[in-house]
Write a structure and sequence with these properties.
This protein has a 7-stranded parallel sheet, with helices on both faces. It has a 6-stranded parallel sheet with strand order 19-31-30-20-29-28, with helices on both faces. It has a 5-stranded antiparallel sheet with strand order 2-1-4-3-5. It has 22 helices and 31 strands. The chain is an alpha/beta fold. α7 crosses α8 and α10 packs parallel to α11. The protein folds into 6 domains: 97 residues, 3-Layer(aba) Sandwich (GIY-YIG endonuclease); 64 residues, Arc Repressor Mutant, subunit A, CATH 1.10.10; 82 residues; 200 residues, Rossmann fold (3-Layer(aba) Sandwich), CATH 3.40.50.300; 176 residues, P-loop containing nucleotide triphosphate hydrolases (Rossmann fold); 65 residues, no CATH class. 31% of the residues lie in helices and 22% in strands.
């Protein structure tokens, strides 16, 4: 038997034939993770397919089977092959996306010091490397990398190897992740038998008391319990428990535990009897009909619904239908920040059936969630882009919430668009894909409104509309403030008079406000505060950035020099605007920290929270900030793009967009569309309850079409 493998070497494309040893013939199947030789290396590989013959004479044998259960499902294998072909990525790179971090390992080189007393006074790198290996012992190259940041130590190491100072060995490190076990204790006899032995458990009063306390505690426990709990509750030690085990009274053993990130997330009480609006019911009926028939004319839907129209409830009903049919669901959200709120709603509806996947989880948490998904113990997987590749055995529904969002694009190799991949994956699984958004992209909208050609294998996308909010509330009115006029009145601060007054009123009523900064790409640029003209590079249209005197890109820059970060074009900062000849040329680099500081200065008693990259680097930071704000432990939330997506906060009655123009000045053909989407989404965070709300949008370019349409919530007009 021949196995065709995708080997885990990033630079290698294609598949390679290997002989399956007789002892593994009955165990290996497509999707299995194996160990195989490749050149002078030992590498991991995924079995893509099995065949009876090979054009290769005497192929090398597979060395070992790492897991008897396949790590990839047949639809995943088909998707990996399709993605590798359509995105021009190596197959191994695509496969790597589908495996949990820590399970996939690449070949490495182990370095060992052979001559301990060797000195090389001509090379500082050699001295450091020898000292490191002398202190730490043999190390793999990836371990050495952590000690030589931005230093090419490998050339020096090769020289030392030729001199015989170091020796090398090609190795395959073991997976970094493995199941977690804890030691537990459990009563092994009937309680009456245990009680009968109470008086003979120790020769001293102290020993007797400890062992009696431990035994009585275990009598009360119906299941095995962690030893640490036994120690804490009774004051006994391991020797006491071992003595009880030798007497046959208890049993000590190891129990596997699952590292579940959802243990800290509270369930949100949502009734299963929520009444659907007529629009929601119509949308759900179309999805249900497609779920009911494998021969349905469409398996892809674009659920276009304004902010607050109840798209999530449609997702919940569709998920319930799928689970009742014995299948599983994947729910994608664009930001990690959105997962706690989404997870709470799904946990309340499907307790014990939900798994969470995103990059901020530990390797152990992702690995355990992956294993539970593979075994069919989870029916719903929720997460960011990577959650799409969870190995659920029978997928019936894939939902891509906020499908317009740029976060679904993988910015690092291998490049792909999770929103588009989700549709392909649904077709391969025989599942239904639902794309949901209040502001779908032009491309998504066009594809949905224009069916594909007959020869196209795709079946097209059906548009489902939710034009009204589920509550009696309406979309909040948007007040556009021209900051050029504010300057003419002498206001040179961050906040316009309207925004400052509205903030004061909102806080006095005991309500909440969101202050949003549209910071796509670079935030610092030079513009005229009189006419709004932005100084751009003449070569690539990128906004120029001001640099003070000092080193920039290892080049000495003079004071007030403007630099293009794309092509390196430089010029002096002009004293007057080349457009209107005004002397109001200023640099703008507003940050969320500055906004928060100004709020505290204006309103000392106001409780503020900041939600940006700096404040969310730690684990669970997103959930902590959102929970604090949702519980009204803060009055004002200052943040960037993550505020614009999917948040449902009933007490928020004011949204202030501090500067709407930043993204408009980027050299991006989709700049206007992205700004429109962001502004429309963030405006929808206000007035989601009977309290109502309003939006104040500050801009130096009020005449721009994206800002005009966003201020009117006019999605159809924009398209």
């Amino acid at each position: 038997m021949i196995a065709r493998l995708a080997v885990n070497i990033p630079a290698i494309s294609g598949v390679f034939d290997y002989e399956v040893p007789p002892e593994l013939v009955s165990q290996i199947q497509a999707g299995c993770l194996v160990v195989a030789p490749f050149g002078n290396q030992t590498v991991q590989g995924i079995v893509i397919e099995l065949t009876d013959s090979s054009p290769i004479q005497n192929p090398k044998p597979i060395l070992d089977l790492l897991d008897p259960a396949p790590v990839l499902t047949p639809p995943q294998l088909a998707l990996a092959i399709r993605l590798a072909e359509t995105t021009l990525n190596p197959l191994a790179a695509i496969v790597g996306l589908m495996l949990p971090t820590g399970l996939s390992q690449q070949a490495d080189i182990n370095y060992e010091l052979r001559i301990t007393g060797y000195e090389d006074k001509t090379s500082k790198i050699a001295t450091r490397l020898i000292a490191l290996l002398h202190e730490r012992g043999p190390l793999r190259s990836r371990q050495i990398d952590s000690h030589f940041a931005k230093v090419d130590w490998r050339k020096t190491a090769n020289i030392l190897v030729k001199k015989g100072v170091l020796s090398t060995k090609n190795i395959l490190p073991p997976p970094r992740v493995r199941p977690k076990y804890i030691r537990v204790a459990q009563l092994s006899v009937k309680p009456e038998a245990a009680e009968a032995e109470m008086d003979s458990l120790g020769s001293t009063k102290q020993t007797l008391a400890r062992r009696q306390a431990a035994l009585r505690f275990l009598i009360q426990q119906p299941d095995a319990i962690n030893l640490s709990w036994v120690y804490a509750e009774t004051g006994c030690n391991l020797a006491d428990l071992q003595e009880l085990e030798e007497r046959g009274l208890i049993r000590l053993f190891e129990n596997e535990i699952f590292r579940d990130p959802l243990g800290k997330i509270e369930k949100q009480g949502i009734s299963n009897e929520l009444n659907l609006t007529p629009e929601q019911n119509a949308a759900f009926r179309e999805i249900k009909e497609s779920l009911s028939s494998s021969l349905a004319s469409r398996n892809s839907f674009l659920l276009y619904g304004i902010t607050g129209s109840g798209k999530t409830e449609v997702y919940l009903r569709a998920a319930e239908e799928v689970i009742n049919r014995g299948k599983q669901v994947i729910i994608l959200v664009p930001e990690i920040a959105l997962t706690p709120q989404t997870v709470r709603r799904f946990l309340s509806r499907f307790p014990g059936q939900v798994g969470l996947v995103h990059s901020k989880l530990s390797e152990g948490e992702r690995y355990d969630t992956w294993r539970r998904a593979r075994s069919g113990k989870l029916n719903v997987i929720i997460g960011a882009r990577s959650a799409l590749f969870s190995p659920l055995p029978n997928i019936g529904l894939i939902v891509v919430d906020e499908c317009h969002d740029n976060s679904y694009y993988q910015a690092d190799p291998p490049f792909y668009n999770a929103s588009a991949v989700a549709q392909d994956y649904a077709r391969l699984c025989g599942a239904v894909c639902v794309l949901g958004s209040a502001t779908p992209t032009v491309e998504q909208r066009y594809k949905a409104l224009h069916p594909p050609l007959p020869m196209d294998e795709r079946r097209g996308t059906m548009v489902l509309e939710l034009p009204n909010r589920v509550t009696d509330s309406i979309l909040p009115p948007v007040q556009v403030v021209d900051m050029r006029e504010e300057l003419k009145t002498g206001n040179r601060g961050i906040f316009s008079h309207s925004l400052a007054e509205s903030l004061a009123e909102t806080i006095s009523r005991g309500e909440q406000a969101i202050l949003f900064l549209n910071r796509r790409g670079t935030a610092t640029y030079i513009f005229c505060r009189e006419c709004g003209h932005v100084l751009k590079c003449p070569n690539c249209e990128t906004p120029l950035t001001l640099h003070v005197e000092g080193l920039t890109f290892n080049v000495q820059r003079s004071t007030n020099e403007l630099l293009c970060h794309h092509c390196g074009y430089t010029r002096k900062k002009p004293s007057k605007c080349p457009q209107c000849n005004s002397d109001q040329i200023r640099e703008y680099g507003l940050g969320s920290e500055k906004v928060e500081a100004d709020i505290r200065s204006m309103f000392p008693a106001v409780r503020t929270l900041r939600w940006d990259w700096d404040t969310t680097r730690k684990k669970d930071a997103h959930e902590i900030i959102l929970t604090h704000f949702a519980n009204h432990q803060a009055d004002v939330l200052v943040g960037t793009q993550m505020l614009a997506k999917g948040l449902d906060l009933p007490l928020v009655t004011l949204v202030g967009i501090v500067l709407a123009d930043v993204g408009l000045n980027l050299p991006d053909p989709f700049a206007g569309e992205k700004v429109f989407q962001t502004l429309t989404q963030v405006a929808g965070r206000a007035g989601r309850s009977s309290r109502g709300g309003k939006v104040i949008l500050q801009t130096f370019m009020p005449e721009h079409y994206a800002i005009q349409f966003a201020s009117e919530h006019d999605v159809n007009g924009f398209y």
